[in-house]
Amino acid sequence: MADYDYDLFTIGAGSGGVRASRVAAAHGARVAVAEEHRIGGTCVIRGCVPKKMLVYGAHFAEDLEDAEQFGWNIEGKSFDWIKLRNAVLNDVTRLEGLYTQTLGNHEVTIFEERAEITGDHEVTLASGRKVTAKYILVATGARPFVPDFPGAEHIITSNEAFHLDALPKRIIIAGGGYIANEFAGIFNEFGSKVTLVNRSDVLLRGYDEALRDRLLQISLMKGIEFKFNTTFKSITKTASGTLQVELDGCDDMEVDAVMFATGRVPNVEGLGLDKVGVELGQRGEIKVDAYSKTSVDYLYAVGDVTDRVQLTPVAIREGQAFADSVFGKGEPYAVDHSCIPSAVFSHPPIAAVGLTESEARNTLGSVRVYQADFRPMKNVLAGRNERSLFKMVCDDSNGRIVGIHMIAPDAAEMMQAAAIAVKAGLTKADFDATTAIHPTMAEELVLMR
User: Fold this and answer.
1) Which pLDDT does position 2 carry in this prediction?
2) Which of 94, 179, 280, 419 sits in a 20 to 30 Å window from 445, CA-based?
3) Are 163 and 325 in contact (CB under 8 A)?
């Protein structure tokens, strides 16, 4: 590898790129990484980390109401969006520093500029400097999809939502996926009038139908409006600064902001992939094999840019597997993309792992479903008429658990441990034989009949 400037050159310092770079360096490789924006990528800078902080902030709206039933007298409560926004952005900067420090501690060279592949084993930086590498890893992630229609320049995406100078009094959120539902809950709790507009009549496609229905029911009860089978025709900015939104499928609306959360597209433009013959998929994603190798032998890709599973922990695992397999001393290994747990940080949150009931019936034929439909103890005392739902889907032939789905406060925290059991192939009998922790919501996992 001495014929090259580096053993590995990584384009993109997000979760997958940082993990791959530092692990490769730990294996003894000479590593460089280029990042044109900020170290940390989507998750740390403009994604799951700052969003979860906003979710925490939003929860206080209901917690302060519920506290009165628990004996607390809270007077003069108010919410300061700018204070929360700045606190979140400051913590993002702190985390960016830690990610940068991690790379530095592993002696990874950082180029804070754009990089483009300009030839075999060759990368050209925005400054004009050319460097060579034995292996090149593309980890440039994805970005929010922005549609093309009259007035689209007036919309915001999740990227801009973290930097708003003021909360919109009225906001339309376009989309039906996890980002749309999460921000609908966030803005609603902060006091905005939220309308979620979706081109189909399905929310959270891929999640169990019972959970989707329950979230819709609770969201309506919280005051969020939904417009299904509706598309955008145009957006016009008025003299007063509001937005006049012309819709196909419902009446036109006047709002203060329109946010689009209708999917994410891989960042592949301007990388020079065509110069070396990297094969792309129908959505522009980089096509890779099980070991994250592209159609070019020395070029790999991990994370959202491959559009396999757009989740941060998956990108991290892919980066780890790539670095271990290419630079480690052990046998190469691939990431198992099956049975991946996930969560939607809506209000309340959803968490799931494995097959939905319908998927299990289509795949296995005979299944057995167990449910727990209950009102959490805290909600009872608070007078909050909001019910949680747990579902366990089992293969009827052997009792093996093939899916667990829940919508409940702290669902994601409970799901992490439950996902281990599903991944390990445990059975309903194994859960039944486990003593419950009482009183908790999690005990319903071992009490379902």
Assistant:
1) 64
2) 179
3) no
Instruction: Give the SS3 label for residue 43.
Output: helix
Tokens of 246: 């012309």
**Has domain 348-447 been given CATH number 3.30.390.30?**
yes
| Cα gap 150→259, rounded to integer Å | 15
Residue spans of the domains in the chain: they are 6-142+265-327, 152-262, 348-447
Q: Where are the beta strands (DSSP E) in 139-249?
A: 142-144, 170-174, 193-197, 225-227, 231-237, 243-248
Q: Taking each helix axis from N to C terminus, what angle separates 15-26 and 81-105, rounded to the nearest 10 degrees?
A: 20
Euclidean distance between CA atoms 415 and 357, whole angstroms? 17
Is the fold of 6-142+265-327 the same as that of 152-262?
yes
Determine the Cα angle at 182 with ends 87 and 160, to 5°. Answer: 55
What tokens appear for 117 in the block? 């592949």
Catalytic positions, written as ranges: 438
pLDDT score of 449: 87
Two tokens at 346? 């809506």
CA-based Rg of the chain, rounded to a whole angstrom?
24
In this structure, the strands spanning 6-11 and 31-34 are: parallel
DSSP summary character for residue 372: E
Query: For the chain, how long is the longest CA-to-CA vector?
Result: 72
User: CB count, 10 Å around CB of 196?
Assistant: 26
Give the span between the Cα atoms of 297 and 8, in whole angstroms. 13
Low-confidence ranges of the chain (pLDDT < 50): none
* CA-based torsion, 52, 56, 59, 61: positive or negative: negative
SS3 279: coil
For 6-142+265-327, give the CATH class: alpha beta
> In the CATH scheme, what is the code of domain 152-262?
3.50.50.60
- Note the pLDDT tens digit of each residue in 243-272: 999 999 999 999 999 999 999 999 999 999
Q: Write out the E strands in 166-274.
A: 170-174, 193-197, 225-227, 231-237, 243-248, 253-255, 257-260, 264-266
Can you read off the two tokens belonging to residue 406?
């829940």
Distance CA 406, CA 416 (A): 12
Geometric angle at alpha carbon 403, from 399 and 407, rounded to 5°:
130
Helix or strand or coil: residue 185? Answer: helix
